[in-house]
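Bumping my old thread because nobody answered last time. Still need a sequence for this structure:
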């Protein structure tokens, strides 16, 4: 008779399965190593008695000669367990931040590509991984979010990421795998001391464990407490942000600067997290907060990868980077769905003027004039200033022209800032 796996591991998977909505699929991130091979094996046993489908996803990074062997092992294991397997072969682009970070980016891109929103993805990280993550974060000088390590559960791009064995030691998993005579692949890079995590795993943590036998468990527990504190702070920050928010991604800078500096830092980081933006490095965050009191019409711009932070008229704006528009223009027959450099335009044009000039869409060039009923003619530049439209948004408009006559000023997909008398833009789609 085949040996039975410990009830604790199966119980943890039963608990994880109970968190998956009925009818949704459970996926296992299958690398082919010991941890994920055991997770796939026991997940198959748990799911057989449930109404949940089980699938596996293997990401082949192609970083070493053993990559093909890992892929073949995953195929054999899934065939043996009767689990459908998806394989994604990726190209790892370091982009200056190291191969480990680049591989993680490629892996998560594969998750987003193949795992449908609403499904659950199980990851095989365990207690030792959590302890290593906390130490790495501490050595980098991370704040409480970094020290919290990996969460047990995380909602990410519509997918639920779950780590059922985050409280289980690596030794427990290894003992179970051996007891089951399980096959897996040993990753030769796991012994490469050039990687920080490997140095911690093979040199630092064993030394700590000699002096403090419960070191790994204690470090992982500390990460859990940090995670709890981080979640509590995020909850408080969300309530405070609601009072400071003037528009999506826009805060009252005057009210923000009146708060103690630690709360300012927390609120800006929390707003980034709420909007799915990367949080700022410490130096960039300090530079931004130092400029919250800039002159009312100053145009403050602080950038970090993936984010532009702007302060204008006592408001703080956080957004994805915007780039200058190319010089462009195109004819328009007035029907919706036309594609512009600012995205599709979901408006229909109705114009009762007698103009026979063709209607053109283009970017601002300067010198455009609006005919304002009862007020005469007004430069578009001056009119936009009067509307208190932020300067960067003034450059990202679609101008509708019929010859020299301006018919409208639009923000795709369907916002009408101004329309000429006798001209109507109807929203569609």
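Sorry it took so long. Here it is:
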């Amino acid at each position: 008779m085949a040996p039975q796996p410990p009830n604790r591991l199966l119980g943890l998977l039963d608990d994880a399965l109970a968190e998956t909505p009925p009818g949704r699929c459970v996926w296992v991130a299958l690398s082919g190593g010991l941890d994920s091979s055991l997770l796939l094996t026991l997940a198959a046993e748990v799911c057989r008695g449930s109404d949940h489908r089980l699938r596996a996803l293997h990401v082949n990074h192609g970083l070493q000669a053993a990559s093909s062997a890992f892929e073949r092992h995953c195929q054999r294991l899934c065939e043996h367990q009767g689990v459908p397997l998806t394989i994604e072969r990726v190209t790892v682009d370091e982009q200056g931040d190291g191969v480990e970070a680049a591989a993680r980016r490629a892996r998560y891109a594969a998750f987003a590509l193949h795992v449908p929103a609403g499904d659950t993805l199980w990851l095989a990280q365990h207690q030792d991984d959590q302890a290593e993550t906390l130490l790495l974060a501490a050595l980098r000088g991370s704040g409480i979010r970094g020290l919290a390590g990996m969460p047990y559960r995380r909602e990410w791009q519509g997918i639920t990421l779950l780590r059922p064995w985050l409280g289980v030691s690596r030794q427990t998993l290894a003992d179970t795998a051996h007891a089951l005579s399980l096959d897996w692949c040993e990753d030769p890079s796991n012994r490469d001391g050039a990687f920080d995590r490997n140095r911690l795993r093979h040199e630092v943590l064993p030394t700590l464990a000699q002096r403090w036998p419960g070191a790994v468990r204690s470090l992982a527990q500390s990460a859990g407490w940090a995670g709890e504190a981080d979640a509590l702070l995020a909850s408080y920050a969300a309530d405070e942000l609601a009072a400071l928010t003037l528009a999506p991604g826009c805060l009252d800078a005057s009210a923000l600067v009146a708060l103690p500096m630690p709360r300012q830092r927390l609120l800006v980081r929390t707003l980034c997290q709420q909007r799915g933006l990367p949080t700022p490095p410490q130096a960039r965050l300090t530079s931004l907060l130092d400029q919250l009191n800039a002159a009312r019409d100053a145009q403050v711009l602080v950038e970090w990868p993936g984010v532009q932070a702007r302060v204008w008229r006592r408001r703080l704006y956080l957004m994805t980077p915007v780039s200058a528009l190319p010089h462009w223009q195109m004819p328009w027959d007035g029907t919706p769905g036309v594609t512009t450099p600012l995205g599709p335009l979901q408006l229909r044009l109705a114009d009762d003027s007698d103009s026979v000039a063709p209607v053109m869409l283009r970017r601002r060039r300067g010198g455009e004039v609006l005919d304002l009923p009862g007020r005469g003619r007004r430069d578009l530049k001056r009119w936009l200033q009067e509307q208190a439209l932020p300067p960067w948004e003034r450059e990202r408009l679609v101008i509708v022209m019929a010859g020299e006559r301006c018919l409208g000023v639009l923000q795709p997909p369907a916002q009408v800032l101004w329309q000429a008398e006798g001209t109507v833009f109807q929203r569609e789609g």
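The longest helix spans residues 215-244. Let me know if any region looks off to you.
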